[in-house]
Structure formats: C-alpha cells, structure tokens
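Morning. Coffee machine broken again, so started the prediction first thing and wrote up yesterday's gels while waiting. Chain of 254 residues, entered below exactly as on the submission form.
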Amino acid sequence: MTVEEIIKPENLTYKKSPLLTDAPMHYCPGCSHGTVHKILAEVLEDLNAQENSIGITPVGCSVLLYNYIDIDWIEAAHGRAPAVATAAKRLYPNKHIFAYQGDGDLAAIGTGEIIHTCNRGDNVTIIFINNGIYGMTGGQMAPTTLLGMPTATTPYGRDPKLNGYPFKVSEIMAQLPGTGYVTRQAVHTPGAVRQARKALKKAFEKAYAGKGTSFIEIVATCSSGWKLSPVDSNKWMTENMFPFYPLGDLKDVE
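Came back before lunch.
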C-alpha cells in the first residue's frame, strides 16, 4: 500500500484536532493535563465552538492552557476564574464559557468563587483537575490531599489533627441548587478517556442549554509532586485516589 493510499480520509482512524496548536507541551511526563487538553479541544470541535467559546485560566499548571487550544482566552487572578466566567457569560450569553482550574486554585483560594458560582447556577462549565497536591509551586499539601499522603509540607503524611480533612469538592457542588451536572472522571486508560470526553461534551451542552453550572472533576496524577514514575502514579491514583474520590455522575438534572 502506498503512502497516498494510507492517508486517504477513509483510512484515517484519528486526526489531531485543528483547535490544538503546535506548541510543545510543557507538562511533566505522565501528567494528566495534556490528555484533558486533547479531549477538550475535540469536544469544542464537535460543538463547532472555536469561534463561539471563551476559556478562563487562573494560576498554576492550568494557566498555560491558552498556549495549546486556539480559542479566545482570559487569564484570571488566582482562584477567581469562576467569577470571571460569570462575567463573561453575562456579557456573552450565547457563547460557551468555561473555566479550567487545579485543586490548589479552585479548592483553596478559590473556594468562595466556585461555591457562589455553582449556587447561583451560572450557565458555565467548570473543569476541575484534582491531583491532590500543589503541582507547580513545589508539591505542597492541597485541600484535596489524602489523609496520610506525604507532600512537601506534610512529609510524614497528612494528619487530620494538624492539617484537617480532604475536601470533596464535587460532593459539595452537587448539593447546591444551581448545578445542573456534576461528574467525576479520569483519563488514565483509553476507556476512561472516552468516558471523560463524553462527560465533558455533556457538561458543555447542559450549561449552554441553560441547565445551570456544569462541574466536571478529573482525578489526575502529578508524578513530579508525588515523586513517582508515570506508571506508578497511575497505579497509586487507582489504589488511593479512586476509593476516596469515586468516579461517576453525582448529579444530572434533565
């Protein structure tokens, strides 16, 4: 078979989304962010939303997403992405508006913003990457760090008497009247990636249809912060993160 025959459209099983730029990814080996970027670009392409979407990124590993997907972007102050998303949606009610945040950003300094956005029911999508640690700034304990989990600031493991308990953000958001869709997914296997992609598209569709705030949590790895190889990070996540942060839909309002 010639090269010309191989590259015929009917022979293609996958192609890179045209929304993804050619910028080299800066993430550490094994990081979940790159996979989420890929399915996010594909979902926006499916929705024909390149010219009809605005993404908001704050501070942390999430911030450089604007380098990788060719849409309109706004950079928010640390933790304030949901508030900026609210403003953008009210200015542009006919656009897909979403925020992309890590756990150190959303679940710590941004707790007030995310709770009130979800409580108001602003028709935006919030993508929440939960790897249980502050990745970019040195591996410190985050609100989502598991009990007993070692970090740069809890070298002997998180102790609830000293450090409090892990924050289950999605469970809280599911209780608020303004959320229309709350789900927790992962991207550690091909099957999980397909399921996360399906959930992400549903989240965008529901928010755009006026069903309230869509909140999609991705349980993720941070091999650098966890001090594990990419393979061991996926294993550790499966054995430790998933029992505490179980995958699946928590709320789905028709």
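The mean pLDDT is 93. Going to sketch it on the whiteboard this afternoon.
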